[in-house]
Amino acid sequence: MTLHLGKGRSLASALVTSLVLALSVLVAPAVTAPAEAATPITVSQAIGQQTGATQTVRGYVVGQPTATSTVVRSGFPSDYALAIADSASQTNTSSMLYVQIPSAFRAQWGLRTNPSLMGKQIDVTGALSAYFSHPGMTSTSAFALAGGTTPTEPPPTGGTSPWDATYYAPAVGRTGTALRTSLHDIIDDNTRLSYDAVWTALKDTDQDPNNTGNVIELYTGRSISKSSNGGSVGNWNREHVWAQSRGGFTTSAGPGTDLHHLRPEDVTVNGTRGNKDFDNGGTAVSGCTDCWTDSDSFEPRDAVKGDVARMLLYMAVRYEGDDGFQDLEMSTVSGSAVPRIGDLDILLQWNSADPVDAFEMRRNDRIHAQWQGNRNPFIDHPEWAAAIWN
């Protein structure tokens, strides 16, 4: 009897165990196969999806954009951008996507350094948003040759300017206040010019690359004779991008004569801009195509919005109040008191939307080599603006 009961218990135990196992199979979660990598979209799809969303796009490298409707296919001026298309032979810029190349990727993916990339099919990942006022990709986070090559990730410290190992060495790899302080210490020992010397300097720094007898006016974009400088209607004069009255400085040697924010400009348009902040909107400015103004702000043409932003950011870092001049600061409020100017949020957008071009780079080089001995770090590293102010 005992043996029988033992066998009964063993059989019951086995049945219970089998039932539990069966139920566990029924309720076990389904195993999901690993998700496959997203399939890259085409350039034409990317052009139609300019929503700011992050996407991977596949296309052929067809050149370097230098303006909204201009893509060069040789003699590349920089490593800052490239254009891709669905066909390697595409020449119509409306069928191209302009891709921003952050500094961390320029050594490997910039066309000045790597012209052999022309015609190669690549995958790029970033935000689908306007670049050079054209369908584009910004905040690019990965580049890869099409066909499975692992995307290139940026080095931890970033920075590929030719000046990184020397001029900017103390700043590379830093962010926030530490970066701002390092940059100030690097750029603050510049040569100070007289206001009269600024006339001569601007004829060099802002020379028209297509006509060496002319300069290019900042806001109008007009090419005008170097000898047409002065204060009369139709002349060009010395525009302080950081307006004197907004910085509390004069035209004595110092911030009022710093070439990094002084540009040739039409006398009348200069007067229209006055000492206003920079912002979007308003009514059209006479004699200045694609310029707008209202009671307290001025909007320049798209092609120089980034230039304006980078000049003002330079001034805010260069002049920190430690050398007898005002501590210049950026503001997010229009009409703010001396020594502030803005609108910072808009200017940071302009810095991203209008990349550094060959004219701006040459200008930075000339000021450094010939006139002041210092550089505008936001031309060499536009991404440092966000590293400090965002």
UniProtKB/TrEMBL annotation:
Q: Does the keyword Nuclease apply?
A: yes
Cited Pfam families: DUF6359 (PF19886), Endonuclease_1 (PF04231)
Keyword Repeat listed: no
GO molecular-function term, one example from the UniProt record = hydrolase activity
Protein known as: Endonuclease I
Which domain of life does the protein's organism represent? Bacteria
InterPro entries, A to Z: Endonuclease-I, His-Me_finger_sf, YhcR_N
Q: What keywords are assigned to this protein? A: Endonuclease, Hydrolase, Nuclease, Signal
Signal sequence, renumbered to the chain = 1-37
Recite the lineage of the species: Bacteria, Bacillati, Actinomycetota, Actinomycetes, Propionibacteriales
Q: Which residues form the Endonuclease YhcR N-terminal domain?
A: 41-144
Query: What is the scientific name of the source organism?
Result: Nocardioides alpinus
